[in-house]
Structure formats: structure tokens, C-alpha cells
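cron nightly-structures :: item 1 of 1
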Amino acid sequence: MSRPHDAQRPFFPFGNPFRMISPKGSQLSSKLLVILNNFEETLAEKFRKLDPKETGDVLSLSWMEKAMKSLCETHSDVKNLITALELPVCDWDDKWIDVYLDISVKLLDICNAFSSEISRLNQGRLMLQCVLHNLESSSPEQFIRASSSLDRWRQHISSRNPRFANCGSILESLRETLDLPKVKNSAKGKVLMQAMYGVKVQTLFVCSIFVAAFSGPAKKPLELSVSGTHLWSLSFTNLLMNVNSNIRNRPSSGSVAIFKELEAVEANVKKLSPLIRSGEGTVEEESVRSSVSSLRGSVDRLSQELDLLEKEVDGFFQIVLTGRDALLCNLRANGPASAQMQKNIVER
């Protein structure tokens, strides 16, 4: 199987696969322009809806859920675009397929890291629910147990997930290969390349925000610059500018959390802890009840948002996975893959 020899391998390298689809020098027809413009206008609207000027604080689980849902929709949109373009897999060469499988594995790895962090946060949520259960009693012994559980929760939530150790390097490697590959002899290939460029930009943007939010306050999102020739370029540039401003101007609270739902829980834990430590909660019973109520409300909000976000992350994982499966099924339908490709698929 052939492999590219350049130092950088394109993110979705469609260069050669379409050389047999249309004659040399082909131009975009009105039908192809409509397909491309519809895709880019839809993407521009997605970027506008994610702008923090419209949605509020960008570093929140609710915003992250909207961003992941939007990303899932875009990946579905590009699958529909491929169908509309009628680009048969049998016209793609082995090296494109090999690189696509490699990139999709990286996206699945990133999704697994996100799911792992959501599970870790859910473990912390269960710890807090045990605390709230203990505080239903006013006995000093239960207060002491609850205080100890809050200490364990703080240690748990301040630890870092090792699954994120490689996410930054994965995103950086994808960012470095963001430039469009050249398609000289295929009008359909040019349409697909422009659409894929938008998909790549949104994927890198959303995933980089997730990595930053899940990795702690010290982590910053990737810097991205895009070509201004696309219908969505202005809306994305405005989104990026407002997101960066939102993150940069975020007040420092000393919290280990970077998104607001967890910050609210942490603030309530900090308020409740001294009231129940060593059984002192029996002295200020009204303050304890108020603090417990506030903590329960913030934990419920965190639980709700984590559940919604988990659903969208799982959905993105399934979209990437089913895309791989569909590609492999098409390869089998159009003939056996090369021995080397089969070996690569098994290894992955």
C-alpha cells in the first residue's frame, strides 16, 4: 500500500482519490455550488449560535453540551454532503483510507478521554450525594463522617485524569495539518475539501475547549487561524475572539474547576465544611440547613448537565465509529483491501 512521503500528512487527504471522477480542469457547476453553499451557511449559523455573546459563559457544561451537539450535527451534515456528491469509495486510493482510519482512531481516543473524565466527575457526584445523605441526620457523628467525605471529594476533584496526557499532542498534530490538500482535477473533490476544512476547524475548536476545560485552569485552548474565503469564516472568527475574551476575562476564584457548574459545587462545599467540622454544625443548625440546601441544588445541576454532556459525547463517538464501519463495509463491497491495509485495520 502506498503511503505519503511528505513530512506532514493531511488531516483528510483527498488529493488523488478523485482524479478519475471528472476530467482535468473541471469547474464547480451550479449544483455543486448549491451543495457547498448550503453546507457552509449551515456551519456559519452553528458558529453564531455558539457565540458566548448569545449563550453566556463559554466554560460551562451547558455550553459544552451545545458545542458537542453542534459538532455531531456537522459530522452528520458532511456525511449527507458526501451522499449528495455521489463519490464512490472505490475511487479513493489506499493511502487516503489509511490516513482516515488513523485520524478517526485519534478522535475516538479523545472521545474516550472525555468519557473517562465525565465518569470521574460522576464518581465525585456520588460522593457528594453520600455527604448529603449523612447530613439528613443532625448527629455529631454523621457530621464528622460528612466532613471527612468532603475532604475526600476535594482530593478527588483536584486530581488530574491521566487520560488527558496525550490529548494536547493529538490536537496539535491535527492543527499542524489543517491546510487544505490540493485537488486539481475533481470538482466534486474540491467541494468535499472545502466542506472537510470546515469540519476540521469545528472539530479542533470544540475538542480543544473540552481538553482545556477538563484539564484545569492552567490549560489554554489551541490557537486557530482560518482562511477568510469561506461563508462561515467571519462567524467563526467572531466566535473564537469572544471565546478567548470570555476565558481571558474570567475572574480567578482559586477553584480547581474551570467550568461554572463545578465551581458552584466547590463554593458550596467550601461554605459547608467549617460548619460541620468536628460536630460544630449542631451549634449553627440554621446555617447548616441553608448550606446543605445550596449544595444539594448545585449537585443536582451538575448531575443534570453531566448527563446531557455524556449523551452528546457518546453520540459523537458513535458517529466517528459508524463512519469507520461504513467505510470498511464499502471497501468489502467493492473488493478486498490490500494485504497491508487489512494488517493496519487489525492493528487498530
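cron nightly-structures :: done
The chain has one domain: 30-347.
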